Amino acid sequence: MEKVKDLLQMVNIEKNFPGVKALKGVNLNVGYGEVHALVGENGAGKSTLMKCLIGLYPVTSGEILFDGKTIDHYSTAQALTMGISMIHQELSPVLYRPIMENLWLGREPLNRFGFVDHQEMYNKSLKVLQEIELDEDPRTLMVNLTVAKMQMVEIAKAISYDAKLIIMDEPSSALTEHEEQQLFKIIRKLKSKGTSIIYISHRLAEIFEIADRVTVFRDGKNVGTEFIDQLTMDQIITMMIGRTMDEMYPKIPCQIGETILEVKNLSHKKYFRNISFEVKKGEIFGIAGLVGAGRTEVIETIFGMRPKISGEVRINGKLVEIKNPMDGIANKMGFLTEDRRATGIFAVLGVDSNIAIPNYDQFLSKIGLVDDKAVTIGCNEYVEKIQIKTPSLNQAIQNLSGGNQQKVLMARWLMTGPDILFLDEPTRGIDVGAKAEIYKLITMLAGEGKCIVMVSSELPEILGMSDRIMVMHEGKMTGLLENSPDLTQDTIMRYATGTQDDF
Amino acid sequence: MRHQNRLQEILTKYGIVFVLIVMIVAMSMIKPSFRTLNNILNILTQCSVYGILALGMTVVIVSKGIDLSVGSILALCAVIAASLGQSNTASTKYFVNMSELPIIVPILAGLLVGALCGAVNGGLIAFTGIPAFIATLGMMTICRGFAYIYTSGKPVSTLIPSFEFIGQGRLLGIPMPVVVYLIMIIITKILLNNTRFGKRTFAVGGNINAAEVSGVNVKKILLWVYTYMGLCAGVAAIVSTGRMVSAQPGLASGYELTAIASTTIGGTSQSGGIGTVWGAVVGALVLSVMRNGMTILGIQSYLQQIVEGVVIIVAVILDMRKNARKA
Ligand SMILES: Nc1ncnc2c1ncn2[C@@H]1O[C@H](COP(=O)(O)OP(=O)(O)OP(=O)(O)O)[C@@H](O)[C@H]1O
Ligand SMILES: [Mg+2]
To answer: How many structural domains is chain A composed of?
Structure first.
């Protein structure tokens, strides 16, 4: 294999945070026009390394060479001018401003009087959006977009800098099949123009599809770099977790009992209509569909986060009126939301508070005060059970890696001891090892007789875990399928795109 | 190297406490009179009124709110309490034919009015969704107006001796205002750190949407946050009235800003979800020591204001750097 000349060399990078050694001497080389994948467990240090690269964090020690020159002590703005742009793992759109202002934030085109030139901005935005095939008016407010579309805008933004190196930190975690393919098309186009890409993902299948080389991280160190065609999936996983993996989807058939949750003709004024299904005790009920099909909205409505216009929900045969999440929780429901940052984490609060928020009732002392010791014990139990990687319980959750934040939220809802658990993209941004752990947990919960309703864009996950699957297309249910080994991703996709419709 | 980092960490974490200590040590060296027990008790007494406001303000700011009306609420509570606590010997009586009431009546009246005004703030913010800044700005002028109407603009004076005791008496040698302040510190600390209400207040301030999804009754929390703030204003009103043995409607104007300043100097973050009761106490002490010290040194009061402003800004800059380092 020919030697690639390198655009980027990161040599022996170390990065310490108070109490945490996030990077312990990392090396990374990226060639011109190369798609270089980074993989590794949650908290391995991938995002941290990238944040060092774009000048967001100063490195503790080490050397960075970019385009043949040593660079250090630079700001993110300087990194952009040098040609390094990044799509962040955690989105931070300016919600109440239009797409176009988000795209050109900080480099708004000006007219000759020095005022912002909105027409020019609009035209340029249109072009960029066309390039990534996102069919939205640039004047649409960000807040009206789905997470997937926000992600596409973010991608558009990174591209529009004409960077030499584009870092994509889990760009696909909020995307479905279709957009993912669009993203790959964009990446291939960039590559043919000589742009280098660093691609971080927990979806290993993607890496085989798009990457030239892959670097595996473990515990703040790189444990190997290889050409992708010289590795198998299992080899990568073994490198990542330092041992071989047991089965990915540990789904064992559970005792399926009587019907617990019954949804009849549920409609929302905008997002979906006439949704009917039931979920039994011990059952895992998957909801599949493309982004924007209304899957999230359906479960949000059941949980009381959105008002319904008609239809009914029964629990154990009894009609319930759930008007807000408090009612939902009172009816022993739990809800792991899709958008971690917006509706999940309390960024500045500790891991313990984040887990305990809906659960303080369990930890009251005799005189009605919160018993902090009991909270600590309770939280620690889950930290161990699902292996949350955090230096301490009172570490602010914003300092945890994305995957570990997700695990904390999982712990929050598990602790409420729900009968019905809604999981919206439960393994988004979670590494393979932890994913298997979460699947194990879900299976265990089902085994304990809980109902699980899982929305997921990852078809292997849907097929690997569900007992039954509802497929939605544009707000309508198109299929209600019994899972079986014969059921394929293709079949589900046919329902999801509306080509097949049983109702 | 490691050692130095640790020191730096401690310094940034407890920076404001060091500032306080340095101020105290410096003052004691410059002016021996600063060091006297009497002066120390004096400093504590002086900060008790806005110190109590700062306690409530901490709860408010942790919930990502603000309350500009507390000075006015204090004044309203004070004139009402005072009007019910006049002695028979008063030359101008508010309620002409009323005989002396037991002290508990004006106290409860003051607290109740405070809590009610706070509840109005909380209700407006929680149920109409208008920003706290606007709701409390409105209440600020409304309560002040009521205080003036109630008194026709005149002071209410000559109060019963037990009122005087609250302001100037001592319990085990400690001035009563300081005793009340200490009690309020303990109550607020427990409220914020050891009750579900407190934990949920942090959650609401940290991420209101996530709090809602987690089943927190956000409206109820906000209602109680401002009600507690109002209650603190009521308590402060009683202390203030006791200290001056009178009340007048123009009282405590600008105290809301002193309370916000104390809270902020103590490291409570305006972006919500971060704050401690100890911070509010230290912040109030810093202001009090500074004022006392500058007065002893004979620094002109206009200049004092400038220094105070600078201190507030610097404290917040330092505090933000502390948080930035963590991120
Ligand atoms: N600002 C910070 N302060 C303290 N610790 C931090 C901070 N940022 C990251 N860390 C820690 O550094 C380690 C590496 O985190 P990083 O986000 O780089 O992981 P990652 O490989 O991107 O994981 P994921 O796949 O979950 O996104 C983690 O242990 C994390 O807790
Ligand atoms: Mg990451």
So the answer is: 3
